[in-house]
């Protein structure tokens, strides 16, 4: 089964089982997973998300959380690749983006390879199928969220 690395507002969880989204506690990982690097990355994610959710560091915090090329997401993708190498399980990295009503989702491209990665989610979806955006080649996901504290695009 696949694994998902995603930043967490819980400082102890940033890895989920891909089939059921059950949390995997960092302190239960074997030493080969470089737990200190994971904890440090997740703490950076947590602080950035907190700044973002409080509106105190917009747009820097939003860019850091959502940009494929941000330092935060580069580190997260590196951690996901390390977990994949150690575990032998496909390990996806989850990006985030704000929910934009009436967005043209069908034309959204994977930020790594440029392929179409939008997939409508069915009501009975489970595991990786609960993500609207998934690139199996690049092991990337994108989760959208509503954020009333963000200005509309273009402002």
What this model shows, in words?
The protein is an alpha/beta fold and 155 residues long. 28% of the residues lie in helices and 18% in strands. The chain has three helices and six strands. The chain has a six-stranded mixed beta sheet. Helix 1 crosses helix 2 and helix 1 runs antiparallel to helix 3. The longest helix is centred in the N-terminal third of the chain and has 20 residues. The chain is globular, with a radius of gyration of 15 Å.
Fraction in beta strands: 15-25%
Rough outline? globular
The SS-based structural class is alpha/beta
The major pleated sheet works out as:
6 strands, mixed
Helix content, binned percent: 25-40%
Residue runs with pLDDT of under 50 for 5 or more positions? 151-155
